[in-house]
Amino acid sequence: MKVSIGSDHRGFKVKEEIKKCSGFEFIDRGTFSEESTDYPDYAKLVADDVLQNRVDFGILICYSGIGMSIAANKIKGIRAAYVIDEEFASLAKKHNNANILVLGAKVVEGKDLCKIVKVFSAEQFEGGRHQKRIDKICSLEKN
Fold first, then answer.
1. Where in the sequence is the domain holding 74, given as residue range(s)?
2. Where does residue 52 rank: exposed (0-12), middle (13-18), buried (19+ CB within 10 A)?
3. Max Cα distance, the chain (Å)
């Protein structure tokens, strides 16, 4: 499985930890240090990889996860899900067909990051009643 991953300076350590433990092939879009950066830049790079089908999904990390989630969800075609644990990771994929997993470095600190990522990657969108809702979300992007 191929994954695009990006973080700002506050998510850098979590990004590096995920790359070591998950076993996936990564396109690392940065940042590459703890020097201050702007999270929207990385949200755009990862979203572009997802939309161009270069990867199976994306992962974004910032301190809270909120900024990355907001930035990524401004991009048409992206369904970035802010996830705090394995259950949310599962639901994000099964019910919302999320294509980017968003983590808050402060929030997931001490949790098993690789389990969260693996659950997200393994789940499948259920479709059915959820597809109708995804269609409505997509129609919001047209306005």
1. 2-142
2. exposed
3. 45
What is the distance between the alpha carbons of residues 82 and 69, in angstroms, rounded to a whole number? 6
Q: Which residues are catalytic?
A: 62, 95
The CATH number of the domain holding residue 10 is: 3.40.1400.10
pLDDT in tens, 30-50: 999 999 999 999 999 999 999
With a CB cutoff of 8 Å and minimum separation 6, the contacts of 92 are 81, 83, 98, 101, 120
pTM over 0.70: yes
Number of C-beta neighbours around residue 137 at 10 A: 12
In the chain, the number of structural domains is 1
Q: How many C-beta atoms surround the C-beta of residue 90 within 10 A?
A: 16
